Amino acid sequence: MIIPIFIPHGGCPERCNFCDQSVSGGHPISISKVDETVRRYLSFKKNTDSVEAAFYGGTFTALTQQIQERYLEVLKPFLESKEIHSVRIATRPDAIDKIWLKVIKKKFQVKTIEIGAQSFNLEVLQALGRSHSVKSIGDAVYVLKELNISCGLHLMVGCPKESAQDDFLMVKKVLELRPDFIRLHPLLILKDTPLEKLWQNGEFAPLSIEQAVERCAWITSTIEKEGIKVIRLGLQTNEFLPQAVLAGPYHPAFGDLVRGRILRKKVCNDLQSLNPHSGGVLEIALHQKEAGSFVGPHRENLNWLKKTFELHEIFWRST
Fold it and tell me: What domains does the chain contain, in order, with CATH numbers?
């Protein structure tokens, strides 16, 4: 169970061209409201062995150390009573201070840090309005591994200044750095962001849903084959996000689309080796958790397989 504590743009040294955390993050939570937020989430707690408080939506470690401690001190009673077992924070690569992280790891049980990397292409980072370097991403991961803090990377596809090789570069760097997990989502055009002007002026075009699903499916399957988990695909939807998206591959179940595409590709590869007869009937056994993603909205994946392989019908059963 993760208790999200949103601090939109808190500590951020700059405003990224694509970002509006007040929309994508949710309701901001002040220090005075942290206790109330934690208690509210704990009241919903069911049977779980692990509860984690997570600071999202800003650059937590770029806040002053005094403000960081004020946020974390609120959690101290919950940590001592074992109602919360650990703390997670989100930050950026150039806001990693090894000495300070040792302090808050020991004092407040900070066990996971998510790093907003976005891209491994310097031109892309600059086009996104981010001032950190590519090298700082690797340096940050190295420090977290040295401190035995679980490390996650946030990455995006469909950014300005991307080259045709950027997906391969992303996979290559992730496999070199070997973070514990990644989050991956396509770039969206949000209202009242600098990127909106580029889009309106015709200087930038976001990906289509099909492009985004195809690219994220390849990246995800390639990375996960090497044992690195993709824990989220697409932005977490909330009451604000749908109204704020002006353009781009937004879908409230984007992750399901990507997981369904990965499964479809696996079935497609198997069918090509089997060379099924035209008009045949196919039965597929799926894990119950995979069934919805595989079938797809409006039976999209089943219909695609039927048309592609000229099958009469496809049946699936859960295992």
Answer: 2-252 (3.20.20.70), 261-318 (no CATH)
